[in-house]
Design brief:
Elements (H helix, E strand, L loop, with lengths): L6 H7 L3 E5 L2 E6 L1 H6 L4 H6 L4 E10 L4 E5 L2 E5 L9 E6 L5 E3 L8 E10 L3 E8 L4 E7 L12 E5 L6 E4 L5 H5 L3
Antiparallel strand pairs: 1-2, 3-4, 3-6, 4-5, 6-12, 7-11, 8-9, 8-11, 9-10
Length: about 180
């Protein structure tokens, strides 16, 4: 047994991880399970960085779920098995695709508000037209796309990377808080 608050250390050395909040077990699983498919919003927030988008289910089939956030829509490959229409969609920054605007393509658009060079990645914050602040991590390559603060970009959320959770009764902030 190894106890740590360093998520990267836990992910690197553990076969199984127990995530706790206020002395109670929230979730257990392998590092990969807890990072890619956490069952709880708290775990999604605690184990790595995540974007949380509050939206409403428009339509759900066996293949995908359509979610509306203000005027925009995006999709999740998850089959929804809860009755609530208000949901929290979660996606890791490294799974968000950022590209130059393409007319007619269904995606979110916004402007880059900040960018930080982190060595092997560049972390961007994009403010969408409907006010969401979305973190995006792109691998650093020698032919950086010429994106700078103020650049207009489109964001694509791959359906396989968008996880859906029922909106928490106590609210999103309370649910993901470590207190």
């Amino acid at each position: 047994i190894h106890v740590t608050h360093d998520q990267e250390e836990a992910m690197a050395i553990a076969d199984r991880i127990v995530v706790m909040k206020s002395g109670r077990i929230v979730e257990t699983g392998t590092p990969l399970e807890l990072y890619l498919r956490p069952k709880r919003l708290f775990t999604m927030n605690f184990v790595g960085e995540a974007n949380f988008i509050v939206g409403e289910i428009v339509k759900s089939t066996n293949r995908r779920t359509k979610v509306r956030k203000n005027a925009g829509v995006f999709y999740s490959s998850e089959k929804v098995d809860f009755e609530e229409r208000k949901v929290v969609a979660a996606i890791r920054p490294e799974f968000v695709h950022m590209e130059k605007p393409v007319k007619g393509k269904e995606s979110w658009s916004g402007r880059i508000e900040s960018m930080v060079f982190m060595g092997s990645t560049i972390r961007y914050e994009v403010r969408t037209e409907d006010g969401e602040l979305i973190a995006v991590k792109c691998p650093f390559v020698s032919d950086v796309y010429g994106w700078n603060v103020g650049s207009h970009v489109n964001l694509e959320l791959p359906p396989d990377a968008v996880l859906l959770y029922p909106y928490p009764e106590a609210g999103l902030e309370k649910e993901i808080s470590v207190e």
